[in-house]
Amino acid sequence: MNAHRVTDDELHAYVDGQLAPERRLVVERWLADDPEAARRAEDYRAQAAFLHEIFDPVLREPASDPVHDLTEKLRGRIAGNDNAPSWHAKPWVRMAAAVMLVVAGAGGGWLGRGAVNNSPAVQQRQSLATFAEEASQAHRFYTSDERFQVELGADNQDELNSWLSKRVGREVFGPDLGKVGYRLIGGRSLPTDLGAGAQYMYINDQNKRITLFVGAPQAGNPSKFSFTQNGDVATFYWVEGSLAYALAGRLSKEELLGIAEAVYNDVKAGPPRRDPPPQQDQQNQPQEQQQNGVQPVSDTQKPKDS
Amino acid sequence: MSKFGVELEVHIASLRRYARALLRNNRADAEDLVQEALTRAVARSDTFKAGTNLRAWLFTILHNVHVNQVRSKAARPDEVDVDAVESKLVSPARQEERVELREMMRAVDELPEEQRKVLLLVALEGLKYEEVAEMLGVPIGTVMSRLSRAREAVRAKLSNEGSVTLRRVK
Q1: Which residues of A229-251 are buried (b: 16+ CB within 10 A; e: fewer)?
Q2: Distance between the two ends of chain B, CA-based, in angstroms?
Q3: Do A79 and B4 lie within an 8 Å CB cutoff?
Q4: Of B5, B13, B119, which is closest to A59 when you measure between CB atoms?
């Protein structure tokens, strides 16, 4: 019994994502045996979710002019002669920054992460959990305001898919969820713990929105469906092939599972092959790739220069 | 470079959120506090060492400015009117969440300031316990006990309200 003894501090650290990784299992085992402690952990989490719900809108409010000017001044002072390029002022970068912040605030996200030495397996599990966390926060964030819910609409799905594939560096696509009553409305690219990620947004007839987050993990060990609940947002996440997926929605676990299975099956079946054969895509790609200096792992490129 | 640009942007948005929560959702006061903190940060930018924790540096400055403000106001205390505070709750997203969010606001507002700060820094801003300890100039054990007391006090208040059920769906 005493071997399982967990301190009060560790319960808080567990909730706050600040627990030493080797103690995590011990705490989880304890919580499974102690309903009162499990309820406390749950309530603490709910408190954090409430705080985010109340105050995260501040992130979307424009700063006052003096604060904005001081930010610019400070940027110049601290970064020395860094004439910050204007790209950071673009709305989507601000939004991306805000999302990183939302994530950082949730359970000690990656911005605030200290240097912790973990085994690769633990690291992978953690980064996948962080990825799922990012997915649910991004869901919360981008479904909160219809003005910027998607960066690019789904009117032209080929365009959307190839744009996001370029950002992620692998071939990604928004699966067809018509069978479960959801249609794709668009997507956006976001920074994640695993590099650039793609968020696809779907909507059903009741105006209920779900998002599918796709990222490229470093080591693509296939994993089964995992589930996490973040406030009122439920998320299933898994790894399939070279990609990690996280499906988030304000739905019950069972409802979401049904959709996750539909996503899984459609992804397994592969991307939609439409009229233009793959050869045509290849001709359009190389210029972009040279500019970016990024080598996609995707199979759509051929080694032209060699 | 570019990473730095986004990072600063993120930290300042974070400061603004924290200031708003700390000052009980008073938008004007919160922006003033951030403005004064940034003014001081610009003046003391030479004390920031590149590669160190920018966020902790900014939060510490904001904390010190706030402490000074509170001290100078101590001579002429003005009571906080609970109704006025509630009317300033500008952001409840949806109708059905109003009640529980309002209860949460009230429970947090009623905490002693030292506990409220720790709860907000940890649960809202995601600061590390060590960062909070250093920022407030207290031992880490003190941070943990304030955090624990804050969370239990909020929990007790929310469960007393009856109207609020904190996700206990079986």
Answers
A1: ebbebbbbbbbeeebbbbbbbbb
A2: 49
A3: yes
A4: B13
Residue B11 region, left (φ>0) first, then alpha (ψ -120 to 50), else beta?
Answer: alpha
DSSP H helices, B23-139, are 27-43, 54-73, 82-87, 98-109, 113-119, 129-136
Contacts of A98 in chain B (CB under 8 A): 10, 13
Tell me the pLDDT tens digit for each residue of B58-87. 999 999 999 999 888 776 655 555 544 444
CB–CB of A43 and B14 under 8 A?
Answer: no
Divide the 306 residues of chain A into consecutive groups of 10 and give the mean pLDDT of each group. 72 87 84 91 89 85 88 82 41 55 44 43 71 82 68 86 88 93 90 79 92 82 78 85 90 91 90 55 42 36 38
ipTM: 0.85
Question: B123 near A47, Cβ under 8 Å?
Answer: yes
**How many Cα neighbours within 13 Å face the side chain of B24?**
18
Q: In Å, how far is B17's CA from the nearest CA of chain A?
A: 6
Return the ∠ at Cα A195 (arms to A155 and A233), rounded to 5°: 65
Which one of B6, B30, B45 has the shortest CB-CB distance to A97? B6
Domains of chain B with bracketed CATH: 1-79 (1.10.1740.10), 92-170 (1.10.10.10)
Rounded to an integer, what distance in angstroms lies between the CA atom of residue A60 and that of residue A95?
8
Residue indicated by tokens 């008073």:
B26
| Rounded Cα–Cα distance for residues B150 and B37 (Å) | 26
Q: Where do the domains of chain A lie? A: 2-110, 147-269
Contact A226, A143 (CB under 8 A): no
Superfamily per CATH, domain A147-269? MucB/RseB, C-terminal domain (3.30.200.100)
Q: Which of B111, B133, B140, B110 is nearest to B59 (CA)?
A: B133
